[in-house]
């Protein structure tokens, strides 16, 4: 039912109520404060603002009931927008409006009973019912539109801050502090960065991860790029990473890399690079989670992927040019030898062959590369090149260095 304008009897009752607007405002304000804790405690709206809002909305309501034509609903819309900005809950707002309408109706009853005007009271009741629908519809629409705009603006700002965090765009301490405050993260907290490979454009490989972490009391911030979903996760303690890794392993649908544990939000961009390196260490097309927990040498290699890949190609070029099967056997043996700290026996156990076979392969490697496994300088170069090749396997396909 739509309100189509005031009938004479309704206009007369509205005029009588409007003459006592200060009293009506006082009683409406008192009921709202007494019956609704959210307003009684001034949680979102001060008592002064609430009283002014009661007066304005009651005046507009009585004017609409007392004048012919389409009612002016601008005050209802204005209240809806204001309460959305203040964060007041919509159900509480609608309840406060109903209290105001009830107070107006009670004034109509008082006047109509004293004048024995039952017909006028019936007409006023119909008008009030029609107007309450239009008021609440207008208020709700304005509230929701404003809330949607606020949410969109906050979301866009959050995305911009997360982007700045991951790209290192934090030129000043003030900017970093603003990012920490907006994302509800500690400036000097303990963190890890996660990089998960997307299964397709715009698809999250870890759907709902932020909410799942929040349920476990881990704050985090995430963004989605065409090829990665990346996030920084706040740990309550350094050993908390184990629980995060378990959750990631359960959710993983592809390759997931995790940075070392680090301190200070300003180091997020660096940690993202290490998380990406960890991801790249997994074979494409596989599913799993791996954390970058390598030595300082691995960090140095990871800091410059292009130079490290060129180093791997320069040092290991003769072996990389061998047929695939032969190349794989020799590189696997060399990696095992480094992992086993130069022990031929342990290397043989690792690669499932006789120690003499290991010695033969190692000699083949040194002959091909023209380097010695007893010269510290050669060992250092070989170890670095091998680690770079592990982190950046595409180095095996680089063109020869001129």
Automatic annotation (TrEMBL):
Domain of life: Bacteria
Family assignment from sequence similarity: Belongs to the CdaR family.
Domain CdaR GGDEF-like: from-to ranges: 169-280
Name this protein carries in UniProt: Helix-turn-helix domain-containing protein
Pfam family membership, one: HTH_30
Domain RsbT co-antagonist protein RsbRD N-terminal: 22-158
Gene3D superfamilies xref list: PucR C-terminal helix-turn-helix domain (1.10.10.2840)
Highest classification ranks of the organism: Bacteria, Bacillati, Actinomycetota, Actinomycetes, Pseudonocardiales
Native organism: Amycolatopsis dongchuanensis
Annotated InterPro entries: CdaR-like_regulators (IPR051448), CdaR_GGDEF (IPR041522), PucR_C-HTH_dom (IPR025736), PucR_C-HTH_sf (IPR042070), RsbRD_N_dom (IPR025751)
Domain PucR C-terminal helix-turn-helix residue range list: 330-388
